[in-house]
């Protein structure tokens, strides 16, 4: 019976092509608008590293001046000073830890046809690659011994490696960076983590920036006084010179801990509190502000990766979908009302109200499927237009299998909901009145 009603539904689409097309288009536009917005929100608010997001923690230590401070006030910056980052690295209180900051360097290709160019990079410690499950195409990251020695080694992104060396394996090659020779020890594979949670601060598009082009050891970048590429916050004037900057309270370094188990978070918090107490005895951290730890999901919320504007846009899109459903209800009422005579004859021949209800509801499902297919195409088009607006939107404006299924399911469900009232009205047709009018 379902197959028979389904075929009737397909035939009904051809009875009034203009009205059918209007219903399908109305439903498709509403679904496309809501799904395109929901897709972006879904990508932006997803857990980028779900198997260990509760074990990766960011410390926030407020080292700002006491003057002008109000208790409970948020710190000026969520980064650490060089002194705090170095102390946390040296104490090794977690399974892994890394300090990192952005750098900008001049790359001198060995290929004569390529001119000198600037590259955006990152200066982390060796634990970085294992902490964040960074995939490698060739080679690997550097060792802790190379961290300690501040060795001149570099890891390239896949895009930069292909630009410099083509498809060949460049591990072991020498690359000139800032007039210094660096040995290539690894090449990353494509690493499209979204949002790019490990480096939200100091990038052009925040959590949705492009991948860094190269990576050098944290200690190496400090030894060579590489140009910083990111945010820096200084609460007071500092003496000239790079060493004075390192010794200052300027915050410019991001820091991450990785724990063996989320249960160790309390012990890490106790360590941070003890560390702050010791630093206060040295005349630092006079604000007495609480030291905080944020896991990945908490960090994304704290940094407002998904802002209120994005959430409001999603609600407005679903409001638009409801408006489209109301219009679809009116069109279905008009479509089914002209078939009152057909319903009356069917009822007179013995069809029950339940059978009439099933027939018309399946017809609305057919309309929903047509609207779903068209809505899916419109959603792809909308996402393509959104992606053209900026690089950050290019990262988030793509649809995965979950959203594909959700688009189709939402369209069918919307059509069924919109068809409940018109279908119920059609079932109330009195056979005697319709037969008498014929």
Automatic annotation (TrEMBL):
Organism, scientific name? Duganella fentianensis
- Which UniProt key words apply to this protein? Cell membrane, Membrane, Transmembrane, Transmembrane helix
Domain (ABC3 transporter permease C-terminal): residue spans on this chain: 316-431
Name of the molecule in the record: FtsX-like permease family protein
Q: Which InterPro entries match?
A: ABC3_permease_C (IPR003838), MacB_PCD (IPR025857), Macrolide_Exporter_MacB (IPR050250)
Q: Name one Pfam family in it.
A: FtsX
State the Gene Ontology terms under molecular function: transmembrane transporter activity
- Record-level GO cellular component terms: plasma membrane
Q: Where this protein primarily resides, as one coarse class? A: membrane
The residue ranges of the MacB-like periplasmic core domain are 20-254
Give the location in the cell. Answer: Cell membrane
What stretches pass through the bilayer? 312-338, 359-389, 401-421
**Membrane disposition:** Multi-pass membrane protein
